[in-house]
Design brief:
The chain folds into two domains: 219 residues, 3-Layer(aba) Sandwich (Rossmann fold); 75 residues, Alpha-Beta Plaits, CATH 3.30.70. It is of the alpha/beta class. Helix content is 35%, strand content 28%.
């Protein structure tokens, strides 16, 4: 059974339909990236799943519980880190985590063990008795994550957990999320597409209240067309090489430009469904006695996928 199940969810703000009947499942142990442009419906979906608001129609279940009928039970199952990461800066890390544990009704006999576990998981052992106001932004994010874990929830919903962090801090938080994902179900909302690609094993993209793409990074890449996915540099007659490449079965487009090396041209190929034609291309070039200087296949980026599916009709 899915840990999170959303079925035909609809939500309006006045006359504006923010969600137009979206449906998706998230299984236990998945780290799912939830992406979309501003105003696409991401925050609305997260607010419904965390029981901050209801929907006009549809269903939302978390850990087998109805978000609309069993909201208190659902909230106990979720650890939610909002984008602004609200912290009490005058408290020490220990004071804050104990306070959050008490808010979540963590039993007293388990309280100290839970604090110890989350500070170890989040790398806060050396910061336990320091005021939060003295911590770097990276460590404040760790404190926020620790507070979402304090009641040992089954599901984590993280909204922009790496915003404002430097590259080293981003790597630290990314690794922490991956570690947490081994034990928890994680939904990660972010505008940092590179981070989502490196962290998540499945991605959902929402646009104008509808899900326009869903799948693993590899599945999404395999379905995007129009990307120059094979690049090569060849010495030889430009017109003849171009004609040769265009005649290869599976090549849709060929673009060519001069290189700094005399007599050599750089070619960019778009293939059917980004098909890997390198072996066939190499064979044809050598058969026709042209000189191949380099060839490589480029993978479509998540940014290109995002741009394509949010600016046009769904690919799926």
């Amino acid at each position: 059974m899915s840990t999170i199940r959303v079925l035909n969810l609809r939500k309006k703000y006045g006359e504006t339909e923010a969600l137009k009947g979206i449906s998706f499942d998230v299984d236990k142990g998945e780290i799912v990236g939830f992406l979309g442009p501003n105003g696409a419906g991401k925050t609305t979906t997260m607010k419904i799943l965390t029981c901050f608001m209801a929907a006009e129609s549809g269903e939302a279940h978390v850990a087998g519980h109805d978000c609309f009928k069993e909201s208190l039970t659902v909230r106990r199952k979720i650890g939610y880190l909002p984008e602004n990461n609200p912290l009490y800066l005058d408290m020490t890390v220990y004071e804050y985590l104990r306070y959050m544990a008490e808010l979540h009704d963590v039993p007293y006999h388990k309280l100290f063990d839970r604090i110890k576990e989350v500070i170890v998981d989040c790398g806060l052992t050396d910061k336990l008795h320091k005021p939060i106001s003295t911590l770097s932004k990276g460590f404040r994010q760790r404190v926020g994550l620790a507070s979402t874990l304090i009641h040992d929830p089954e599901i984590l919903i993280l909204d922009e957990p790496t915003v404002g962090l430097d590259p080293n801090q981003i790597v630290e938080i990314r690794n922490l999320i991956k570690t947490l994902g081994k034990k928890k179900t994680v939904i990660l909302c972010s505008h940092n597409l590179a981070e989502v690609e490196l962290t998540c094993n499945r991605i959902i993209i929402i646009n104008e209240g509808k899900i326009v793409a869903s799948g693993t990074p590899a599945e999404l890449k395999s379905l995007v067309e129009g990307h120059a996915n094979i690049k090569l540099t060849v010495k030889g007659d430009k017109t003849k090489v171009t004609m040769l490449l265009r005649d290869i079965d599976g090549v849709k487009e060929v673009a060519c430009q001069q290189t700094r090396e005399k007599g050599a041209y750089a070619y960019e190929l778009v293939t059917v469904k980004n098909k890997d034609l390198r072996e066939k291309i190499i064979a044809e070039i050598f058969k026709n006695e042209f000189k191949l200087l380099e060839i490589h296949r480029e993978s479509v980026s998540l940014e290109e996928i995002f741009n394509q599916v949010t600016k046009s009709n769904s690919l799926f």
